Amino acid sequence: MRSELMTVLQSRGYIHQCTDAERLDALAAAEAVTGYIGFDLTAPSLHVGNLVSVMLLRRLQQTGHRPIVLLGGGTTMIGDPSGKDEARQLLTPGVIAANKASIARVFSRFIDLDRAIVVDNADWLAGLQYIPFLREVGAHFSVNRMLSFDSVRLRLEREQPLSFLEFNYMILQAYDFLELGRRHGCRLQMGGSDQWGNIVNGVELSRRIDARELFGLTTPLITTADGAKMGKTAAGAMWLAAEMLSPYDYWQFWRNTHDADVGRFLRLFTDVPLDEIARLEALAGAEVNAAKKALADAATALAHGPDAAAEAADTARRTFEEGAGGTALPTLAVTDAIGVIDALIGLGLAASRNEARRLIAQGGVRAGSDLVSDPSATLAVGAEPVRLSAGRKRHGQLVRASG
């Protein structure tokens, strides 16, 4: 790669597919490229599952190019069928507007919004006239080909309903790329691997209507070493907004990363230099905890600021290493695994099985950062201690019994 942009994206593991990597690399080496990613406004915050896309915009800006944050006020009213088994719940305009305001604030932590463009596709989609739109844009889409895209094909193969409303989503996303090219000189659309078909549609639409060369790039599907979807835990989504997930719980999410994922996540989700990542990635045994803490510190500092990250790390140190208030943390040695109720009683966090069940039913029990909602759950204990919490102030740890 000749350009700094493509070199960084390649070396940190962001590239899965690209419509023409060689041409995009040459363009990025020759001039500042404007690129965008769209975010539908389906919740009040983005979550860790969206983070690789947010980091892509950060990398674009860090290497001297111009990011566009496209907030999908228009497309949210339709619903993206990609990766979904059923139609999204349709949100009211008021809810979409509230989500837009809160999501926009998240980006200020990751990119300099004064040097970026933030737009809402409702600005052009809401005013489209149906017949002129069909004539200008619809004529360039083959229904045969649209049926072949995964977002449509998989739903139909599973005999799950796909509304005509959702079927239009890919046309609207393609039109977004056309419109951003016209308004802001946008040449690049990026997104997750599930967006490949939608992105290619936009590239081809602009070529046919405006004879304009655009580019598309997708990231690989990010899963954890155990195959779980990134950003999803037993406690739910790992939100990026502090109002929906505390910086401490966010820090703990990264601290609990699987050993095999630490290096990859440092490259994708932090600004830690590659040579330092190589050093951290080489740590083994108990020393890998230093790499996990470095990941948690760096990722939390990006999302919530250095002060919040330092406070979260200090709270974790006092909780795990000293116990809250500087006292010894209650510890229970376990051979392999233990039922959560037995663990709560054994650590003195519950006086009886009924009290333990009540704590669980009230949502007051966590194993690490994960909410425990099933009283019959079993906690596996490996090389690292498992923190068990009853409420915010009572903690204990399960450790592997020696021998």
Percent of residues in helical segments?
Answer: 40-55%
Question: Number of helix segments?
Answer: 18
User: Average pLDDT, to the nearest integer?
Assistant: 89
Strand order of the largest sheet: 1-6-5-2-3-4
* Percentage of residues in DSSP E strands: 15-25%
**Overall body shape:** globular
Q: How many runs of DSSP E, i.e. beta strands?
A: 15
Q: Give the biggest sheet.
A: 6 strands, mixed
How would you describe the oligomerization state of the chains in this entry? single chain
Which structural class do you get from the secondary structure elements? alpha/beta
- Please report the distance between the alpha carbons of the first and last residues: 52 Å
User: What is the CA-based Rg, rounded?
Assistant: 24 Å
What are the segments in which pLDDT stays under 50 over at least 5 consecutive residues? Answer: none
Question: Would you give an account of this structure?
Answer:
The chain has 18 helices and 15 strands. The protein has helices at 4-11, 21-30, 51-62, 93-107, 122-125, 130-136, 143-146, 150-157, 164-167, 169-184, 196-210, 247-255, 262-269, 274-281, 288-304, 306-322, 340-346, 353-361, and strands at residues 17-18, 34-40, 66-72, 117-120, 188-192, 215-219, 232-233, 236-237, 331-334, 337-339, 365-367, 370-371, 378-380, 386-390, 394-400. Helix 10 (169-184) crosses helix 11 (196-210) and helix 12 (247-255) runs antiparallel to helix 15. The longest helix has 17 residues, at 288-304. It is globular and about 70 Å long.
Keywords:
five-stranded mixed beta sheet, 44% helix, six-stranded mixed beta sheet, single chain, alpha/beta, 403 residues
